[in-house]
Design brief:
Shape: globular
Helix content: 10-25%
Number of strands: 14
Radius of gyration: 23 Å
Largest sheet: 4 strands, antiparallel
Oligomer: single chain
Strand order of the largest sheet: 2-3-4-7
Length: about 250
């Protein structure tokens, strides 16, 4: 902002709370290196798949990932949040990861996955880096929910989708800021939906787009309503989770 060169570093951390239903649940951290990415993941020890029902519940199976491109300018660690932030603020290297015992069956609820990126000397020209957040469901529950759409069409509309010839695919569209779920055909196939009087073909690799999850800023939601002839009379944002309820009236 002052037109001068400054040494810039960026810090990010994510609490293990993102992977649990309640703070007392024990979690396990694991370092995961994939191709050109350095990553950490965290998930509950118990992995209680679909074992709860009711209100005010959070998904506590599967794993939350934080990843960054491998580079000499990037560091990562898993340790107590205060200790990780203090080491960054002090201008030092991030504190080393906890011992192997500390990463397993951790129920202290104060550990974070932390990344730091040294952007070097930054002046008038913008500098950037990217960091990836992801969720993985190795047990296949999400894939089963996705494929169940085809199973229902078979059952209720007398179709002949062969679920063995579809695979669950998740994509992120950065421009549209949406997560997409697809079912990708693994073979060339013909599908008939008898009650709809409809027949079509799918090439190998072609997908059926089944779901979109869009991410918006609070003000964008209000603006979208206004463009469609609605006035936002109230907006309530959860203090803990990035979630909002909006009340609209037709103008």
């Amino acid at each position: 902002m002052d037109g001068k060169q400054h040494e810039v570093a960026v810090y990010f951390d994510a609490s293990s709370e993102v992977a649990v239903d309640h703070p007392a649940q024990a979690v396990t951290f694991e370092s995961v290196n994939v191709a050109a990415l350095a990553a950490w993941r965290v998930g509950t020890v118990a992995q209680p798949i679909l074992q709860k029902k009711g209100d005010d519940l959070r998904i506590d199976w599967g794993y939350f990932y934080v990843a960054l491109p491998k580079t000499r300018r990037a560091e990562s660690t898993v340790n107590a949040g205060e200790a990780a932030r203090a080491s960054f603020i002090a201008g030092q290297s991030l504190i080393k990861p906890e011992s192997a015992d500390g990463l397993q069956d951790n129920a202290r609820n104060d550990s974070v996955i932390a990344f730091a990126m040294d952007l070097g000397s930054v002046g008038d020209q913008a500098a950037s880096c990217w960091l990836m957040l992801a969720y993985d469901d190795p047990s296949g529950v999400t894939a089963a929910f996705n494929k169940n759409l085809l199973a229902r069409i078979n059952r209720e509309l007398d179709a002949d989708f062969d679920l063995r010839h579809f695979e669950h695919v998740v994509r992120y569209d950065e421009t549209e800021r949406r997560v997409e779920m697809h079912l990708r055909s693994t073979v060339w196939q013909r599908v008939t939906i008898r009650k709809a009087g409809f027949r079509f073909y799918l090439r190998e690799g072609e997908t059926i787009w089944t779901e979109s999850s869009h991410k918006y800023d609070p003000q964008e939601v209000i603006q979208m309503g206004e463009r469609c002839g609605y006035r936002c009379a109230g907006q309530w944002i959860d203090r803990e989770w990035p979630f909002a309820q909006n009340l609209f009236f037709a103008v």
